[in-house]
Amino acid sequence: MIRIPNRRHFRPKSNQFRLFCLALEERVTPDAAPHNLLVSNVYQNWSTTTLIAANDDWSGVPNIMGFLGEDTFGPGVDPQTVVTPYATIDLIANQLSNTALTDGGVAEFDGLVNPVVALQGSATAAAPNLVVSVNTTGRSNISISYNLRDIDGTADNAIQPVALQYRIGNTGDFVNVPAGFVADATTGPNVATKVTPVSVILPSTADNQSEVQVRIITTNAVGSNEWVGIEDIVVGAREFAINTFTTNQQVAYGGRSVAVDADGDAMVVWASFVTNGIAYGIYGQRYDSAGAKVGGEFKINTSTTGSQGGSSVAMDADGDAVVVWQSTGQDGSLYGIYGQRFNSAGAKVGIEFQVNTETHCNQIRPRVAVDADGDAVVVWASYQQDGSSFGIYGQRFNSAGAKVGVENRDNTLPNSSQY
Question: What is the DSSP letter of 51?
Fold first, then answer.
């Protein structure tokens, strides 16, 4: 039996012998399925030191893997220009605080106050790197952020550049992301205090893909290479703009709302200023279950007298929707409550309709709920209708949009205000 010394306690006397050792070591690949960003973002900070138990074993860290980056080029190559994929998995496990280690590659330093996985270039590890694999289906504006931490307090000193790259799928060359480049992530000698945050949104080609691999890579530096920690990794989908029209204000104006049907399709509604040429109007945007926009932004209200705001939307199981809002001056008084029905294809069903029967003074702050069959209830606050200030009133509708019964008061106590 050939026994290969544990790299925790062994430093090869020659690069050739180290490569021989690497070829014989067992290499364990983690779960090959990329992390699904529809479920959650990727968060990795290395504080749980039990995740890594053995050399070259990434099985405790799903969706992240380190690679040795063996290559023939010499020191001083810009990592932004190294786009070649590498196959040799690398991890020097359980190095405690031994940052004097000069093997190069990818290593875990689990004895530091803040444990970390780090990269160091060398003659055999010409381009060590970490790769994070994610599934971005249904997601856009994919962001990655992490901290580059100088952990090498030894006399080693070099200009240690670190680059960020990505590729679609798990084959082919990587694409450099210039915004993620750090020209020198370390200080020294005998200093290890520098922390450099990196935060980048990937190009839109990374959106809605079954697999995207993100790579953080350094190269063998001129001089004595230093260890650079890669910590606080977050990969996810940032918030995205819903409105297309961006002039003036797109606001709640008493309410904005989102509803989702049984299949995960969604409709968002809000108030937009001057889009209708007068004041505020009610606008919407539909999304499919993958999070992609369906069609463009559309106007919901028909009457443009005064302002329309305070919108609320609800959907039944099939995706049919009801939108309600408050409108000024339309019912002959101040604010009144109006609505519009939509089918599952996003087309208007019938015309805009008045919800409230009582029109004296203000009826405001409507909310709507719809059951699986499409029956609806709309509630709102009505001023002085119950003999005091605001009271809560409601109206039921059947699935065909017809009123069921009459407007009714929901609050029992009439004193003061009920909103």
Answer: G
Residue 375 near residue 394 (C-beta atoms within 8 A): no
* 187-225 pLDDT per residue, tens: 989 989 999 999 999 999 999 999 999 999 999 999 999
CA 35 to CA 46: how far, in whole Å?
Answer: 17
Tokens of 163: 């680059």
Q: Which amino acid is at 62?
A: P
CA–CA separation, 66 and 84 (whole Å): 15
Q: What CA–CA distances, in Å, run from 384 to 201, 310, 331? A: 52, 20, 16
Beta strands in 329-370 (DSSP E): 335-342, 348-354, 363-370
Q: What rounded mean pLDDT belongs to the chain?
A: 88
Stretch (H or E) spanning 378? strand 376-383
| CA 295 remoteness from chain centre | 23
Say if residues 173 and 86 touch (Cβ distance below 8 Å): no
Which DSSP letter does residue 274 get?
S
Residue 157: count of CB within 10 angstroms of its CB: 18
Q: How far is CA 267 from CA 31, 257, 283, in A?
A: 35, 8, 10
In the Cβ-directed half-sphere of 18, how many Cα atoms lie within 13 Å? 20
| pTM for this predicted structure | 0.59
Number of residues that make up the chain: 419
Q: Which of 116, 97, 123, 113 is nearest to 12 (CA)?
A: 123
Residue 354, judged by CB atoms within 10 A of its CB (0-12, 13-18, 19+), counts as middle
Query: 226 with 187: CB under 8 angstroms?
Result: no
Q: How far is CA 107 from CA 99, 115, 116, 129, in A?
A: 9, 11, 8, 11
Q: Is 219 within 8 Å of 82 (Cβ atoms)?
A: yes
